[in-house]
Amino acid sequence: MVRVRAIYSIGVQSIWSHPVTVTKAGPPSDIHLAARNDSTPNGHIFLSWNENSDELPIKSYKIYRWPIGNSPELFAVINMDSLYSIQTNFMDTDTTQPVYQCFRYKVIGENLVDLSTESNMDSSYFNRPPKILADQTVITPGEMKLFWERPTPNLSNNFGDVIRVFKEDQPIPVKIDTVFGKNSYSFYEPEKGSVYHFQVMEFPAVITAQMCKNQLVQTAWSQKATVPYLKYPPVQELTAQALPTAPPIDSAPEKGKIYLTWQRKTGQTHVTPITSVSLFRDGQLLAQLTPAVTSYTDSNLTVNHLYAYNVVTIDEFAQKSSSDTVKTKINPYWVFTPQIKSNHETYFKDTLRVRWGWLGADFKWSDDLFGADSAEVSVSIDPKFEHHTASTGWVKNDNHKVSLARPYFVTQNNNDVYLRVRAKDKWGHVSPWSNQYFGLDSAKATYDGVAPQKVAHIRIDSTIASKNVMDLVDVYLSWDATTDNISGMKGYYVRRSDSLVAVVPSSVEDRLHFVDKRVPVDNILDRYWQVFPFDVAGNVQTESDSAFIEIHLYAPLPKPSSFRSFHWDKLNTPFGTTEYWAEIADSNAYFDSKLAEMLHLVSQSGW
Question: Which of 228, 253, 277 is the last residue of a domain?
């Protein structure tokens, strides 16, 4: 034990310090070293030893390594960064040493007072495994030929290899085989669509190196190489869609874009996961993409040039599957911008019905939608569409038409409406409006909410008995043509009492005519005829005068007097002289033929 006190020059002394116990130090405790092959397939040598049990910590370990037959050489020094964190292992990763070369190791531990202890000697060798070249595997019907590289440097030129073959995730090999002096192996009759895993281990066919620990040397097993048999990454279905560019003011665009998208083709089996995607344009690599990417926009392309694209999927085994080649070019004018068709309604009342279509490169209406999936129609009373604008929203292109209710801002005073249309593809790319592209324009319609003028002078000009039919007459009507100041006349609805009997088209004639055929004579004096004009926009005049028949139209009944002689009662009418027509025939059939004898009798009552 040790204690200390201080004595000052003036003769004063301090008290004694607390005693401290000091023990005479000896060398570190024994070190037990173990050297073995690394448990991972890297072929290194792993050293481990026991932790020092003394109270005095170790400050460093010195590791010596030497081939059998040589003297020990200092190989590495491990300095303890902390007295409380002691390292007791070391990995020899020297890849410059030959495989199968046996090395001896020892470790010397040194404590804080520079006393040391030397470990026992132990031996091991580098067992780096072969490297399987999975991407060079040759696959043919009924055979998978595997290749590998030998570990280098190597002490033996005479060697053999053991091959293990695993199927899918099975833990037990389906095949174990041995080859000598080769770096390839053929596995026969693999199962289509299965994934196989290969491992290779090498051993010297002739012992050319020392034995370590009385054991024969061999390499570690290689990393498993996974190779599918007739199982490839899925083929993609590629679509190329030309996209609109900013519309020029006075000419067609010179450059454009093509949107490419792809998805896995349906119905595919025995496929491997995709690790990368290669996109090609005209046979040249355009982009290298990750599997998550399924679309690409190719820009700055020349219009009217035919481009060819294909997409190639690649799996972890470097296997490739290519899509079909898709060719497309950019329409130099409107891509998929539609145009309002000329047969849309020029005039409308409450609902505006609009049609649209697509013009081809020949400026003719095309059946091709150029990729458009839906369309939107915009209406405005402003030719520039800067204010008072309404829209249909996006509608499907099923019929290329839509009905739009009259917007609130369209009135009789603001009745000119301008129309434009644009389209969108199924990926959401939107074309410019039709009025923004050179060569296209907006369309125009006019609101008409006023009905035509009331029809004047409706008359019944005559009534004639319906031919060969009893108790029915044909009524001959006429009326003066009327006018419409906005959309123009389209026709007339003719009604007999409460029933619509005809729609008569408008005419340039001042007087229009209609024959209401086969009208029953019963209650004919109670019947009346009206005419209601309607215009192009669909407005109908709701007022009409009425025309009536003012006399009963029953026919006199002929009575036989003798052979080929008849008489009848005269009709008493307020209209003066009445004429009679008579037909004589041998049978009813002859009334329909020219053989009937016809008589025109004036003011007579028989024949």
Answer: 228
